[in-house]
Design a protein that fits this description.
Number of strands: 14
CATH topology of the largest domain: Rossmann fold
Low-confidence stretches: none
Mean pLDDT: 96
Order of helices and strands: HEEEEHEHEHHEEEEEHEHEEH
Shape: globular
Number of domains: 2
Distance between the termini: 47 Å
Largest sheet: 6 strands, mixed
Helix content: 25-40%
Number of helices: 8
């Protein structure tokens, strides 16, 4: 397999230089100590629950950039597609603490769970109480407890940040975030794997006429590999898998996220969304919000994930609440 070109300096400096670039582009919104894997907000309001998010690098802007008022107080990054170290998790929790405890939100992966739990235990020994909410939105597998956290984390992190900003207690913020997480469902599709920048190799191989449905954001195997389908067929296949899972029903209100995995054109995304919107209207499901972008990437994977979040008045208010970050600012 031929190597793929990437713009970088030394592979061992990838994560640190990415975080340096993030802080530089934030215009003073973010800060990072030399050598630290923690990016923290420069505007942390005291007396409120803090929010920590994080996970492996390679999914930019998630999670590192979603730090700022109305979102996370701090984010912690691991190596490419790898969990952050426990000592860095502890550092993030203590940096985010504003006196009312810390809510921790990240994807449901074994390595992340182990290291975040260890970091949280060490922070608690230093007097910082925390609660954890795992994102498990991937409908590709039947066992909900074992599901991966993928693109739907975009909405879960937003809701968690709004809940903390409202002044809820730690337990209250965790409980409302859990309700949002439960109402979130996602599935992904790939036409081409992403490339690991430190090796120049793709995470998996697909034939020129094949697509992978239900894959993970690190290149984990999906639930179906088929011949390339039309945009309308892809939309129907993905949406049908999501709708039966919660399930979503006529009369429901939803937010829809079309998440570019890194190398899909806006043209392709819009063509697929056009059919998604038609299908939801036919089923009597009202789309109250649509987000199309690249908040949770997998390097330069060609493909996208589709997320539906079932809205209640409470959840809609949290998603619409003000926030300020590098990739996501709303009044």
């Amino acid at each position: 397999m031929a190597q793929v070109k990437k713009i970088m300096n030394k592979p061992e400096d990838l994560v640190d230089e990415t975080l340096d670039g993030l802080v530089a582009i934030s215009q003073g919104l973010l800060a990072r100590d030399p050598g630290s894997r923690v990016v923290r907000s420069t505007r942390i309001e005291q007396g409120k629950v803090g929010l920590v998010v994080g996970g492996g690098s390679g999914h930019e802007p998630m999670y590192g950039a979603f730090v700022g008022p109305g979102l996370a107080n701090a984010s912690v990054s691991g190596n490419i597609f790898a969990a952050p170290a426990p000592q860095h998790v502890q550092e993030a929790i203590e940096a985010a603490d504003a006196g009312a405890g810390v809510l921790i939100v990240y994807g449901n992966y074994a390595g992340d769970i182990l290291n975040f739990d260890l970091g949280a235990e060490d922070a608690e020994d230093n007097g910082v109480k925390s609660r954890t909410v795992l994102v498990r939105d991937d409908v590709a597998t039947d066992d909900r407890e074992g599901r991966r956290g993928i693109g739907g984390a975009y909405y879960v992190v937003k809701a968690a940040g709004a809940a903390c900003a409202k002044g809820l207690s730690l337990d209250e913020a965790a409980e409302v975030t859990e309700r949002v997480e439960f109402n979130t469902r996602t599935i992904g599709i790939a036409l081409r794997a992403g490339v690991l920048p430190d090796t120049g190799k793709r995470t998996f191989e697909l034939g020129d006429d094949e697509i992978e449905i239900g894959l993970g954001v690190h290149g984990e195997v999906g639930v179906e590999r088929t011949k390339l389908q039309t945009a309308d067929q892809i939309a129907e296949n993905m949406l049908n898998r999501i709708l039966v899972d919660l399930p979503f029903e006529s009369g429901d209100r939803v937010a829809v996220l079309m998440n570019n995995l890194g190398a899909t054109t806006q043209m392709e995304m819009l063509i697929v969304y056009r059919r998604i919107a038609q299908l939801l209207e036919e089923k009597g499901i009202t789309v109250e919000r649509t987000d199309i972008g690249a908040p949770f990437t997998s390097q330069d994977m060609a493909g996208f994930s589709l997320t539906l979040l079932k809205l209640t008045d409470e959840i809609a208010e949290l998603i619409a609440a003000p926030c300020e970050s590098v990739p996501w600012t709303q009044a």
